Amino acid sequence: MDIINHTDHVEIKVQLDLYSITVLHKCFYWYGANFSVDIETESDKVGRVRLFPKTEIPVAEYPNLLSKIRNDLIDFKTRDIVSKETQNVRDLLIAKAFSHSDELDDSPPGDISDPVGFDPTAK
Amino acid sequence: MKLHARGIASSISSLIVGEIAHTLTVANGKERILSVNDGYNSAAIGPAAIISSLPFEGLPQEFKLLPSVHSAGALDHLAEGDIVLIKPDGELHTLYRRQSDHNALFVTDRCNSNCLMCSQPPKDRDDIGFFLEINMRLLELIPKDIHILGITGGEPTLLGPRLYFMLRKIKDRLPDTEIHMLTNGRAFAWMNYAELVASVDNPRMVYAIPLYSDYYALHDYIVQAKDAFSQTTLGIHNLARLNQRIEIRIVLHKQVIPRLKQLANFIYRNMPFVDHVALMGLEYTGYTPHNDPLLWIDPYDYVEQLNDAVEFLALNGVNVSIYNLQLCLLPKHLWKYCRKSISDWKQIYIDECMQCDWREECGGLFMSSTRKHSSHIAPMKKQ
Amino acid sequence: MAPLASRKFKPLEFYSSPSIAYYLLPFRFHRLNDSREILVNEVGDYIVAPIDTARRIAAHDISPSESIYADLVANFFISEKPIPDLIDILATRYRTKKSFLDDFTSLHIFVITLRCDHTCHYCQVSRQSEDKHQYDMSRTDIDGFIDLMFKSPSRDVTVEFQGGEPLLVFDNIVYAVKRIEELNRADKRRVRFVVCTNLSNINLDILTFLKEHGILISTSYDGPEFIHNSNRTFSRGNSHATVLEKIGLCREILGNDMVSALMTASSLTLNYPVEIVDDYVAQGLPSIFLRQINPYGFAKKNRMKNAYTAEQFLEFYKTALQHIINLNLRGLFFLEEFATIILSKILTPFPIGFTDLQSPNGMINGAIVYNYDGFVYASDESRMLAEERDFTFQLGHVKSDSYQKIFYGAKAQHIAKYWANESLAGCSECGFQSYCGADPVRHYATQGDLAGYRPTSSFCITNMEIIRFLIELLTENRSIERVFRSWVNKTPL
Question: Are C48 and A57 in contact (CB under 8 A)?
């Protein structure tokens, strides 16, 4: 990730295989109150974000801003990973939550017998 | 307190379950004769059996013809109204005591867990039919005004569908009695079984189910059974869906204490519907002495964790009690959660207790505590 | 006693699966401050952990030997199987959190007149002065609305009379209550009545009726006289003195728990957080609801007195809340209602009933507004927009539209796309999603569209900071956690 300070904007360049366009949009959505945000693909490998501040940022604030950008990108990437990896189990969870029958109930795990022999499904 | 005795049987060919109908003291109060009714014998013809401390020759003539167990020792532990099992080998087992609040049906020695601290170590032989027959007869004799009746073992759900029949009989015979069934709850993870047992529909029955950790591996380790945590919690969940009343029991020892607060949190968030949570002092019997290095912690040393868990549950509106711990070990603000929970037949006070002003209010110790107990038991004065 | 050979004891390692790489379960997270972040699972359970924990979890970097591993498994953040064994329990937990939806519309608000004898500069109802009777709900419409209400499946129904000043049409209230009770004889639903009133017109006859029918009073009390009277002008007297006197009368006759007081924060109020709390305590009120002005109606017109930023409100709120917490720590049981609602979501497994913090929002699903003119609205705020000629949220009319059309028609379906924060930009992955809600009407009114724009949304800015603040307090101080739990369980310490 490269962050470059221009006179009137901050430019962030990322590898798209590390930070996808979706991650960039979700991350920089939150900057829209204080910045005009421009997100585009420079090539199919590189994404570019430009933040144009709506009011002037004091120079002393820049380290905080850069640090925030780095943290936010990592956070949104983490969210993206979690979201993708848990999509199926989340769909299943909600389907089960709102199902009115117990059709969707899973069978219990493991063994339950004692050494003598026991089967809870026996009539 | 004795619950068993042994004498010499005469003319006893099969098991007799009967109530002590009448007691007689003879020979200047030194000897006793007890007559037993089994509910089938006709009072006009005479008792179903006789039990006595006397030798056979000392028995009155008319009793010599009846089934009897003689030379059985002092028999002070038996009183009118008690119900006993008489075996052909002369063994006498007390099944029910009229004076006691701590009666329970013992249903099997089998268990599908093997808890590190089990106070009734399992036996792997199929005794279910044997105990079922005894208990079904016992249920015919227990007076209807009995307040509380436990069901214990071993693991009652190993009765399978027969548990349903026993519970039906209990509900029919003792509709006003509180029933506390101690079970690991694992079989109820199978919804068909939960539905069967719940269909007895007894609003007076509580399933008392132990849970030892919020972390599955620790619970499974403590009960020595893989998947037990999942099965037990799913079982609790199913019973709740079927509107059954549930109590969670937590035995306090070294393995449980480090995650006790987390367990309280787990119970509140995932099972807020439970009737009651009981936090229980350890009984130093069964497997416990053998596993002492894994289990023993002086209760005085876990008061802080106990306090956190109790306060957390109470503040969140969960009914909570402390069982089997002595008042002198606990800060006064926890005393209101303490119950006199130790069954009378195994409850004692030790020497230190004799000087204590609070002995009446305190539940005392387990009989087995003479082997090991907290080093902080000390008498307290009432101000 | 040692066990039989077949029952030999096995060590802890035998029962865990340390070599398995874990699977992720759905969770969200948020940085609380420089050192800590909060992780929240799909049913609102939380773990507070050092910064970077979420990243490590997602990178599958947490080792079973770390103490947090057991916490993550036990609290449904990670699983050792692709589908966790306890998924059915998690599903039940989720269903419980959303169970406020089960009964559909349970709060039925009757705006029974627009006439009022007060002039409150933040009024979100465009009240008309006392003598304009065409602003009363007709009896025909009352009948029609009651029929509509009984079509709702909800077994628990709350009928709330609002206005203007409902007691100016007390006869119509009596009519409505009796009609509802009559029709309910067959259904036997649990019906609760509330009258939202400034109390200036209450008298013993009215109180007798209220007592007979178990009707609750909700009134407005803005605190010390100089604040209350600055906000609320009573045409026939001193609003503050009157309302206090009448609150006392109501509590005496109806009982303390039948009377509740609500405040609204005007710009003046924001300068006196401690004074207003102290005043509520002095009046013997059990709680205070520190809520912002809604940006509708007269409030919009009187911007000088009512316009304040989210940041200004937050400063007021946090000061007042700290003061309330200190009072509790010194032994007084007195709670703040907005905090209590959020804390219920954080600290309990149960749902809450406050529409603005529900997802899906409680409009239509939980509450509906029947206007004096026969029109039906999705919420109080929707009604206000119509006064300004914006009928976006007008769902139909009692005389011409069916229950189906009003509650399930095209308008309701359109709003439905925006009333759950699970699917809104900014909210869908927010760490506080479980503790917050969605408010499409407010966003439409203030930002121009139902979805809203989080970065400049005062709803978002305010809620996020209050939630963060509450979490920080609760997790850093055990005494404060106990106070919060006492509020949530309504049990004094």
Answer: no
